[in-house]
Specification:
The chain is of the alpha/beta class and 197 residues long. 42% of the residues lie in helices and 19% in strands. α1 packs across α7, α5 crosses α6 and α5 packs across α8.
């Protein structure tokens, strides 16, 4: 099995850690070696949260500069912030819906338009999948299911050894029952959007 280093980044509250843990559990369910790590870069909800899932025979949970095979970002500016983890062949999957930080809201900092962030990504890596994941979460009738949309996109384009049936099993077993159908719908919408991108 090939080793894949997947770096996930989001803003606190977007569900990045749940997405990473579900992916790790799905890999274990499929009998694949996996390491999951997380960096809570936030002092409160709204700060940056970074995690990594390494599929294959990894000896360390750390993804160094230029080592990411896949960067999955729930927010376009955060994709730019972690661009140093990427190389020319890294697949970048990003939601394009902006979630500006507090400093932007109070006028203390500027926030580039999402299309500019995506343009920079396209200059640095060969494969970029960009779409409004939050819109798809809302279509799935659960605005908090962006993480499921992004997982769907990852499974559509990431060429993972983890089967889709394993991730769907983990979504069913490890998310609140009242959100299960919406989460599965969000996963499917993300899968279709990324497959078509």
């Amino acid at each position: 099995m090939k080793t894949q280093r997947i770096v996930n980044v989001a803003v606190g509250g977007q569900g990045n850690l749940l997405a990473s843990n579900l992916l790790g559990m799905a890999a274990l369910d499929a009998g694949l070696p996996v390491v999951v790590s997380e960096i809570h870069g936030m002092a409160q909800r709204g700060g940056v949260v970074e995690s990594a899932v390494i599929l294959g025979g990894a000896k360390s949970p750390i993804v160094s500069a230029g080592e990411a095979d896949i960067l999955m970002s729930f927010e376009p500016l955060e994709a730019l912030r972690l661009l140093g983890k990427c190389n020319r062949d890294t697949l970048v999957i990003t939601s394009t819906r902006a979630l500006p930080p507090f400093t932007v809201a109070i006028g203390a900092a500027a926030y580039p338009p999402p299309e500019e962030s995506v343009a920079v990504l396209r200059k640095k890596v060969k494969k970029v999948v960009a779409f409004d994941g939050q819109d798809l979460a809302e279509q799935a009738k659960n605005p908090l299911s962006l993480n499921m949309v992004m997982l769907g996109a990852l499974f559509a384009r990431g060429e993972l050894d983890v089967p889709v049936k394993s991730i769907k099993k983990m979504i069913r077993q490890n998310t609140k029952e009242r959100f299960t159908q919406a989460n599965l719908a969000a996963f499917d919408l993300g899968f279709k959007a990324a497959a078509a991108a």
